[in-house]
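Protocol step 4 of 5: obtain the predicted structure for the target chain.
Materials: sequence only (see below). No template structures provided, no constraints applied. The aim of this step is simply to have a reference model before the mutagenesis design in step 5. Sequence pasted as it appears in the construct record:
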Amino acid sequence: MRVLVVEDEQHLAAQMREALEGNGFVVDVVNDGNEAVYMGNNETYDAAVLDLGLPGRDGLSVLHDWRQNGRTLPVVILIARDGWSEKVQGFRAGADDYVTKPFRMEEIIMRLRALIRRASGHADVMIRSGELEYDTQLGTFHLAGLPLKLTAFEHQLLVYLIHNAERVVSRTELSEHLYSYDNDRDHNSLEVIISRLRRKVGAERIETLRGQGYRLCDRS
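Step 4 output (structure tokens):
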């Protein structure tokens, strides 16, 4: 899943990038409000982490702009320890959750996973497609009760497919959610990863619809 991190403190932004990428997220980082407005309105994200104290445009203005432009991605705002008024203003502007600075990276990860899970319509922390199970808290897959060994990109792709199980997902949509802003979006590499995933989860589980895309199916 692809996440936008908006944080002007370079060290903290780098820490969040490292932690999120280490837990299977695709991450873009921007450091000022004007760039955040542009990226949020023109790129595709599954969620965002947004600091409210930004140069250029403050975080509340950024969030308001996103919502005014119909951007519905879940947003976690970062607030100061005594930022009660910021919290209230953030929720009024359209925030979905908040984290108080300083925080543990695990908290950001857990909150993002929960928001993305609920945004895709899943109430349970376990997302299932037949015998394939994804634990959204731990970020792990099991097939017929046994752990699946996946590469980082295989994991990212399967996470997106299981969040959207039984729905046809186009190659363009997959590319938008699996590649960061600076990476080339290569449809051929998607084909290779899909082929490898089929060998691991069963060819019948990932259906190809010619000219449309892919669909993760319950084949239990």
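Step 4 remarks: The mean pLDDT is 92. The chain has two domains: 2-119, 126-216.
Proceed to step 5.
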